[in-house]
Amino acid sequence: MAERDFDLFVIGAGSGGVRASRFSAARGARVAVAEEGALGGTCVNVGCIPKKLFVYASHFRDEMSEAVAGYGWTVGQAGFDWPTLRDNKTREIERLNGIYAGLLRDAGVRHIEGRARIVGPHAVEVAGERFTAENILVATGGWPTRPDIPGAELGVTSNELFYLDSLPRRAMIVGGGYIAVEFAGIFNGLGVDVTQLYRGPLFLRGFDDDVRRHLAEQMQGRGIDLRLATNLTALAKARSGLRATLSDGSQLETDLVLFATGRHPNSADLGLEEAGVALAPDGSVVVDAYSRSSVPSIWAIGDVTNRLNLTPVAIHEGVCLSETLFGKAPRSPDHENVPAAVFSQPPIGTVGLTEAAARQRYGEIDVYRTTFRALKHTLTHGHERTLMKLIVDRKSDRVVGLHMVGADAGEIVQGFAVAIKSGATKADFDATLGIHPTAAEEFVTMRTPVAG
Question: For residue 321, what pLDDT is reported?
């Protein structure tokens, strides 16, 4: 049999695809990666990185206000210039694109520009050129979903939001996932009049219910017009902006509508079904515990598999795949106790099970919960309150869930995630001294379970 061109051909140079490519090449494999867009995928270009930069920008108004209100500072006339933020963000993303190119080059991975399509279990075509590979990896991520309503083309998705010509005076966010709540906070912090719609009774489905309720209260306290059990049914141009028709029959005018109504696996027109690869009803690639598809030579990782759609998870799956294919032993990704953050305002940090999931799995549990005003806000009379919550399996005393809504939640929970992953018990938490005065110390000083 003739030797194939590559040992591994990767379709998609996002976080997972790049990591799988580099680690596989480091193990001696001949690797190519095809990408039709900018290197780095969603996270680098229109996701985690630019979004977090926008979150930072949106914090400064509150910081200046608090400095004046309680800490003795005098601040002159303040103003915000959207093009400065947008263009500085774009320069940083372009710098990161270059870093990704260098990482692939230094690892000996061949970067092929263009849209790849699978034309057989061991063959891929890019711009009319055919390549053969022993293994093919699909790492094409996800794509924003637009609702099927009249005028949907008048709205934007998160893909376009990072490149707006100007900052709107009024914005409507449609959706209740993490992208929706994050951009509601970003726009609100930048001085935009924000309305958020969510069709269900409470947003952030899948998160702990106390976390969801607490964040909703905090967002409303910031002036965000949060309308639950309400959806957008039509969108049309108006004399000044856009006219939105809502499910309750009312109408609102706004300057911008962001559809944060979910993402779908980016699997269309890749030749997957023709090659015999099984897809789930949502379009995701069906894989086994080792990320292998129904075709033995074709694999998939990251958001296109719709398992746990987080950048670090895609990277982890890429590392495991490289070990499975070119390491000494197969390794399946571990999706248990994965920490996560939502950069809402205030932010969420979470690891482990929700209270509802813990009750279902363990039966008898103890729940520890506290809410308080952080020390920083005591001089400013701010209304923001922090929530912290521990969930403990009563039989083993293991802490099986840890949740926070408050400043620096992601930074704090990252450290506690090590303890949760290591099987720490409530007794271990109780035996750990807190760092005073910090918000984080509350996690090791809660002693009395809440009723119920």
Answer: 98
Secondary structure class of 243 (helix, strand, coil): strand
Q: Tell whether domain 340-444 is in CATH 3.30.390.30.
A: yes
Q: Roughly how many angstroms between the first and final C-alpha of the chain, as a whole number? A: 67
Candidates 111, 264, 383, 436; catalytic one: 436
More confident residue, 126 or 76: 126
CA distances 58 to 89, 349, 375, Å, are: 14, 19, 21
Beta bridge mates, 399: 392
**Cα–Cα distance between 119 and 271 in angstroms, integer?**
6
Task: Give yes or no on whether 6-48+84-144+264-326 and 340-444 have one common fold.
Answer: no
- In the chain, where the domains are located: 6-48+84-144+264-326, 152-261, 340-444
Q: Percent of the chain, pLDDT > 90? A: 97
Residue among 320, 398, 307 nearest 352 (CA)? 398
- What pLDDT digit, counting tens, does each position of 128-167 carry? 999 999 999 999 999 999 999 999 999 999 999 999 999 9
| The CATH number of domain 6-48+84-144+264-326, selected from 1.10.10.10, 3.50.50.60, 3.10.129.10, 3.30.70.260 | 3.50.50.60
The Cα–Cα gap between 209 and 387 comes to 12
Give residue 2's pLDDT: 62
Beta bridge partners of 182: none
Domain spanning 152-261, CATH class:
alpha beta
**Cβ–Cβ contacts within 10 Å for residue 147, how many?**
16
Residue of 246, 261, 253 whose CA lies nearest to 205 = 261
The reply to whether 383 belongs to the active site is no
Query: DSSP 3-state helix, strand, coil percentages of the chain (rounded to 5)?
Result: 35, 25, 40
- Check: pTM over 0.70? Answer yes or no: yes
Q: List, as one string, the DSSP characters of 355-411.
A: HHHHHHHHSSEEEEEEEE--GGGGTTT----EEEEEEEETTT-BEEEEEEESTTHHH
For residue range 315-369, list pLDDT tens digits in order: 999 999 999 999 989 999 999 999 999 999 999 999 999 999 999 999 999 999 9
